[in-house]
Amino acid sequence: MKKDVTDLKIGVLGGGQLGRMMLQSATDFNLDIHMIDPDPNAPCSKMANSFTVGALTDYDTIMAFGADKDVLTIEIEAVNTQALKELESQGKKVFPQPNIVELIQDKRKQKTFYKANRIPTADFVLTENKADVIRQKSFLPAVNKLGKGGYDGQGVQVLKTEEDLEKAFDAPSLLEDLVDFQKELSVIVARNESGEVKCFPLVEMVFHPVANLVEFLFAPAEVTKAIEEKAYKLAEDVITKLDMVGLLAVEMFLTQDNDILVNEVAPRTHNSGHQTIEANITSQFEQHLRAILDLPLGSTELIKPAAMVNVLGEDGFKGNARYEGLNELLSIPGVHLHLYGKKVTKPFRKMGHITITDENTVSLKEKALKVKEILKVKA
């Protein structure tokens, strides 16, 4: 007899802010969520039904954690996929599937998959070490990306001239054509085990010039209907060709020629979907849970335009976090603050995010710029 979803024991690998927001959605469905993270003070440590301290990349640790779970999922890609494959072979539901997580963990394999499946992406060459990058100097200007281990903007170097080659990675990586783009876009797409697919509205991302992290996000993106439809079709194409169950964030470039290229994907809830908590009928976190439990996918309709501002630790400050400007921030209509429960701040650490909703897109952008200047995280 099939278990009711409320009777399933669900294990989540990772206990960071994405897991924390997932837990907040899980309480609405009365789900039994158990989490594992190497940090005993991780944002989820005091919120899950149970919390295990353990290494996400250790085979035996993940096997032990998954032994009594019915369903397993992730909130970070840096996990032991061999253990997840073994748990899957034992009859556990593991979504996203371990072979897909393994492919996405390696940007080289990810890009090769796009090419093999005729998914539009920037031209690239694979490189094994720094000397190999230098031999490919005719490919400049380019972006040098580590094959494995990059996260939140780390493991990426822009190489414009031969002088920049000194910054190249001395490890398996790739050189990718430096795309001259109009905008950076993202579509979050969900697919359940029954094959139902739904996209969230296209969003526009603005990156921090130093930290290489999303600084602002605007939903919906200011593009033509034709470009919007092309982006949805591309996101659906990627998740379908992967045959993936779960939630997939598809980051894209809109080129000067109005082409859309896939940049990278993340097989989990994502920074480019945080605004969905306030701005959409179903949040990305609820949709992820619906997808992995093979429930009908929720409506992704936008209730009203939204902006999202990441709350980053101020440069030059490290220590116990204190927040300046909270009262002023919370006096602004349409502002919703999400803090992630991190006690210690450091430069550019993601400490939370702010969602702003407004019917008027002009005043929305004005508020987003204002909000960024008001709240400061110092020590």
Description:
This protein is an alpha+beta fold and 379 residues long. It folds into three domains: 5-94, Rossmann fold (3-Layer(aba) Sandwich); 123-177, ATP-grasp fold, A domain (Dna Ligase, domain 1, 2-Layer Sandwich), CATH 3.30.1490.20; 181-378, ATP-grasp fold, B domain (D-amino Acid Aminotransferase, Chain A, domain 1), CATH 3.30.470.20. Helices cover 27% and strands 29% of the residues. It is built from eleven helices and 22 strands. It has helices at 17-26, 59-66, 81-89, 98-105, 107-116, 130-135, 225-242, 276-279, 284-292, 326-330, 361-374, and strands at 9-13, 32-37, 50-53, 71-74, 93-94, 124-127, 142-146, 156-159, 173-177, 181-191, 197-199, 203-207, 214-219, 246-255, 260-266, 306-312, 319-320, 322-324, 335-339, 344-345, 350-357, 376-378. Strands 10, 11, 12, 13, 14, 15, 16, 19 and 21 form a nine-stranded antiparallel sheet that branches. A five-stranded parallel sheet has the order 3-2-1-4-5, with helices on both faces. It has a four-stranded antiparallel sheet with strand order 6-9-7-8. Helix 3 (81-89) links the parallel strand 4 (71-74) and strand 5 (93-94). The radius of gyration is 20 Å and the shape is globular. The N and C termini lie far apart (54 Å). The relative contact order is 0.11. The mean pLDDT is 95.
